[in-house]
Give the backbone structure.
Amino acid sequence: MLPVFVREHASKFAYVAIGVVLFFAFLLGSFPYADTISRVLAPTGLRLSSRGQAMSFPYGLRMEGVMLDSPADGRTFFESNTLRVTPALLSWLMGSPGVSIRADAYRGSFDLHARRRGDATEVSFNGADLHLEDYSALRAMGVNLGGVVSGTGDAYLMPNDLFGDHGNINLSAVAASYRIFPGTPPLNLGDITAVVRLDQGKITIQKIESHGGDLMLSGRGVIELQPNLPDSEVAIRFQLETTPVGRKRLGFLLKFLPHPPNSTPYFLSGTLGFPSLT
């Protein structure tokens, strides 16, 4: 049996419930998706485009053929066949526009939560089972990496202010490989883990390790970012070990190293544009 008060006011409760549903239906239907996404992306200097879009049940926006690129040079950073955008209603009502994005990409999935905070953008992400060989941006840079990558991270990004940015990234890869030259057999890198921190214009590689491959790597270091990326200063210390198969595949390239791979570390210094290895 329902309480007497509820029975006597059932119609009023029904009207309130209908009103709440209609309010949120209007709110979600009229949510400024395009404007919010543009405002969230503004500090990054990137733009989002798609071949088509439609409302997604029960709420949100479904986008097809999505591309995230840089208007400055046309470089593509991310592509997805299908992407779903939902509004972060609480942050929007508080005057801080935000969105949650889930994308099917590179045979895996990618989740991103982003919102504006003043002039900056706060983001957090989670990627799972992303296949590097499908990532065209790497191939465009001449980097022939393979493997399946997963990772999490967060970042606070300011427009045109490297020293205002900060964040953390944790990455892992399985069955990683690297093809030195097109058409040559890939070098097996095994499983890789990396922990990276961004703070005050500095990328700190707190850890990068690889195991179970033809080439084993262990290192850490710092990259001091500059507005012109090739001018960024590098200071990275790492050690290399190779298996017989790895030495055979690397061949004469090992002769360009300052010393054979062993317990003695290597030091990478100089700039990203003109690095020096000792």
Summary: The longest helix spans residues 10-29.
